[in-house]
């Protein structure tokens, strides 16, 4: 018996612990001198096998054979301040939840000092403890009237700080609570300490400048110059409580009470759900996919296929959010360091919430757990990390024949696979959905608490870069840029991307080819090489890109079969060429990149994003520089989309969900509307509002 049903299944808890035990044993047997002194595991994750092997295993090719499973193990050594990366062959025989055979380390190396693995939550919590017990920080908060017992800090990646090369760093955003349970984000403190994340050494305390430091020279530009400045005017954090938890609001405002009049909406499926789950293979309404998951991407949709009247048609080998970055527009030190790569720097999958039935997810729900590693090497499980359910999606299609009022209407439905991740103050919900009409949608919901900084008493506002969401609390403007990695296999591995613009006909009114002046037409460009395929959204041309298979055409239109990429949420990175962010986020330089597939090219900002300087010779820039053919080849399409967040006071003290979406829509793929056979059923439970029963439901989602 093998330990896994599918080569892309995430590591089981047994596999994780086998890998960490094998690593410890391997290290124990090393000679002194080259031996790590203390192992703190960082990540243990599946090394996805080469695509050609998986395709063979899946049956796309003739010869299928078992695929050995391997884990990538990354750990830190606090004593030698080093980080290590290993490859472990996993046990081939697991029975009854126990490994019968042993795992074995087959490769390992010490990482360069500029390769910093992601920051774990345990490490962020550690930084908070260091801050709370550091004499200099205690003194600094006492100076502004903060009780050190009520001090909290969010550890953050630092991007790059040129003052401390080769060190693993965290910058800490400081806050205070006014009482237990109070929202700490209402009380930001006026300084930012920087810690060595290996040793806990406090390296510096940085003081952000005010919008107007009257009487002072303008703030110098570099981090080094800034650290040599005298400490600026200190001031206490804003003291007014700004809570979102009802029980906390009530303590500040005894008249507060939950609004009334919201009667329950129950979602019921009396005959059960319409999907099936076999291991991690989900089947629903002609769709089939394997649901992968890892600490970094979070949700991964593998081998997405569609059963088109008995023919299983391959669509996507792998879909995931491969990277994201949240750049802030603050150009003054140290605000320039705020551009968190939540995928690569933290591992957003590892930050998944345990979802709650009836609160996060309504109706008939299936959950999947997610397994990770603790620093100790033991596994840990986030229960119900992934939610799978169906939702009504409004009308699918409708027509009324106006002559005889004959009506035909069918309802659409989505199968939704989702998770929600908490990255310190912010929440991201990732919702992949499949539709009855062949559409795949990715909706990302942004919520949580916006990042804020403290303003000094009487400090002037700078309305062009931040919003004073509540007195003396400034929320700086920022972006959320996501990199959707699409490894397509539209009716086969040979695909290409065609750009379609819609433009007016060239001639003016009265001209020979546009006499009445109303003409418009599409212009197509088939991308030939990676450099040729660099493209940006153009709203004036209603620009779309279609991933198509040039070897197969629609029976009627003659167009290549394809899937169209559509989004109303293309956001452009504002950071200048040569800036830290530009160098580190090559995926965000343009909305579209296309590369020829090669194994192990999953992450466009590199494997080790934390403190990586990037530039022009790494990750996506390297793959693009090859300028390989992407026409009728095995290709990967990278789509960057997102939101610009000019914060509103209404986003405070907790932000109503903001959404960004991308659709992958069949285009010349199906012979006709693939949902013609969806029955026009009538919901027997729907009724006139006046007849609806009064039901009182006291359950709530505040836990
Ligand atoms: Cu935002």
Question: Helices and strands in order, then pairings?
Answer:
Elements: H1 13-28, E1 40-47, H2 51-58, E2 70-77, E3 82-89, E4 94-95, E5 98-99, E6 104-110, H3 121-132, H4 135-142, E7 151-156, E8 169-176, E9 192-196, E10 202-206, H5 223-227, H6 246-252, E11 276-278, E12 281-284, E13 287-294, E14 298-308, E15 311-327, E16 339-340, H7 342-346, E17 365-373, E18 379-401, E19 406-423, E20 426-435, E21 440-448, E22 453-454, E23 466-470, E24 473-476, E25 478-488, E26 496-504, E27 520-526, E28 544-553, E29 560-566, H8 580-584, E30 592-596, H9 619-625, E31 635-645, E32 655-667
The chain binds copper (II) ion (CU).
Family: Belongs to the copper/topaquinone oxidase family.
Domain Copper amine oxidase catalytic: 265-676
InterPro entries: Cu_Am_Ox_Cu-bd (IPR049947), Cu_Am_ox_TPQ-bd (IPR049948), Cu_amine_oxidase (IPR000269), Cu_amine_oxidase_C (IPR015798), Cu_amine_oxidase_C_sf (IPR036460), Cu_amine_oxidase_N-reg (IPR016182), Cu_amine_oxidase_N2 (IPR015800), Cu_amine_oxidase_N3 (IPR015802)
Can you walk me through this structure?
With 703 residues, this protein is mainly β. The chain folds into three domains: 13-110, Nuclear Transport Factor 2, Chain: A, CATH 3.10.450; 121-252, Nuclear Transport Factor 2, Chain: A (Roll), CATH 3.10.450.40; 276-328 and 339-450 and 477-667, Copper amine oxidase, catalytic domain (Beta-galactosidase, Chain A, domain 5). It is 10% helix and 37% strand. The strands form six sheets. It has a ten-stranded antiparallel β-sheet. Strands 11, 12, 13, 14, 15, 16, 25, 30 and 31 form a nine-stranded antiparallel β-sheet that branches. It has a four-stranded antiparallel β-sheet with strand order 1-2-3-6, covered by helices on one side. A hairpin with a 2-residue loop joins β19 and β20. It binds copper (II) ion. Copper (II) ion binds next to β25. Copper (II) ion (CU) binds at residues 446, 450, 478, 480, 645.
């Amino acid at each position: 018996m093998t330990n896994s049903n599918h080569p892309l299944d995430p590591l089981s808890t047994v596999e994780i612990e086998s890998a960490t035990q094998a690593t410890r044993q391997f290290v124990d047997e090393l000679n002194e001198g080259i031996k790590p002194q203390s192992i703190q595991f960082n990540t243990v994750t599946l090394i996805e096998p080469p695509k050609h092997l998986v395709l063979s295993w899946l049956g796309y090719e003739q010869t299928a054979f078992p695929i050995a499973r391997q884990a990538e193990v990354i750990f830190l050594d606090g004593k030698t301040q080093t980080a290590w990366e290993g490859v472990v062959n996993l046990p081939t025989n697991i029975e009854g939840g126990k490994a019968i055979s042993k795992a074995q380390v087959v490769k390992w190396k010490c990482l360069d000092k500029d390769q910093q693995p992601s920051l774990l939550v345990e490490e962020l919590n550690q930084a908070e403890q260091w801050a709370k017990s550091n004499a200099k920080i205690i003194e600094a908060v006492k100076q502004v009237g903060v009780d050190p017992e009520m001090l909290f800090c969010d550890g953050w990646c630092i991007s790059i700080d040129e003052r401390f090369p080769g060190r693993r760093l965290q910058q800490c955003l400081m806050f205070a609570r006014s009482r237990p349970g109070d929202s700490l984000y209402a009380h930001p403190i006026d300084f930012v300490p920087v810690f060595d994340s290996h040793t806990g050494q406090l390296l510096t305390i940085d003081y952000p400048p005010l919008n107007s430091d009257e009487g002072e020279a303008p703030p110098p530009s570099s981090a080094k110059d800034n650290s040599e400045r005298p400490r600026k005017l200190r001031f206490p954090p804003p003291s007014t409580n700004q809570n979102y938890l009802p029980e906390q609001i009530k303590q500040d405002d005894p008249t507060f009470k939950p609004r009334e009049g919201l009667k329950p909406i129950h979602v019921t499926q009396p005959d059960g759900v319409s999907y099936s789950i076999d291991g991690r293979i989900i089947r629903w309404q002609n769709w089939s996919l394997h649901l992968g998951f890892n600490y970094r991407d979070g949700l991964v949709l593998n081998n997405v296929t569609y059963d088109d009247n008995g023919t299983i048609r391959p669509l996507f080998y792998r879909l995931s959010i491969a990277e994201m970055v949240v750049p802030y527009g603050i150009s003054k030190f140290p605000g320039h360091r705020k551009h968190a790569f939540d995928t690569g720097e933290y591992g957003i999958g590892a930050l998944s919430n345990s979802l709650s039935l009836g609160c996060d997810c309504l109706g008939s729900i299936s959950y999947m757990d997610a397994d990770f590693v603790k620093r100790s090497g033991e596994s840990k499980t986030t229960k119900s990390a992934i939610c799978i359910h169906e939702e009504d999606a409004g009308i699918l299609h409708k027509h009324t024949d106006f002559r005889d009022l004959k009506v035909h209407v069918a309802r659409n439905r989505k199968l939704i696979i989702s998770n929600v991740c908490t990255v310190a103050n912010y929440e991201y919900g990732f919702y992949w959905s499949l539709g009855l009409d062949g559409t795949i949608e990715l909706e990302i919901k942004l919520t949580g608490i916006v990042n804020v900084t403290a303003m000094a008493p009487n400090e002037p506002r700078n309305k062009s870069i931040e919003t004073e969401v509540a007195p003396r609390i400034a929320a700086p403007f920022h972006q959320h840029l996501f990199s959707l990695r699409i490894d397509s296999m539209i009716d086969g591995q040979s695909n290409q991307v065609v750009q379609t613009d819609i433009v007016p006909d060239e001639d003016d009114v009265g001209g020979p080819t546009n006499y009445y002046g109303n003409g418009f037409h599409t212009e197509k460009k088939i991308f030939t090489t990676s450099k040729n395929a660099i493209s940006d959204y153009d709203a004036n041309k209603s620009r779309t890109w279609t991933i198509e298979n040039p070897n197969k055409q629609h029976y009627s239109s003659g167009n290549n079969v394809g899937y169209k990429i559509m989004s109303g949420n293309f956001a452009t990175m504002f950071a200048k060429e040569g800036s830290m962010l530009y160098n580190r986020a090559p995926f965000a330089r343009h909305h579209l990149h296309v590369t020829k597939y090669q194994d192990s090219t999953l992450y466009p900002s590199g494997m080790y994003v934390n403190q990586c300087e990037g530039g022009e010779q790494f990750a996506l820039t390297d793959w693009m520089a090859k300028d390989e053919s992407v026409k009728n080849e095995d290709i990967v399409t990278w789509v960057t989309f997102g939101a610009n967040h000019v914060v509103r006071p209404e986003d405070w003290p907790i932000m109503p969900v903001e959404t960004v979406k991308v659709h992958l829509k069949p285009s010349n793929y199906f012979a006709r509307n693939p949902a013609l056979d969806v029955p026009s059923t009538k919901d027997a439970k729907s009724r006139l509002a006046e007849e609806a029963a009064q039901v009182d439901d006291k359950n709530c989602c505040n836990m």
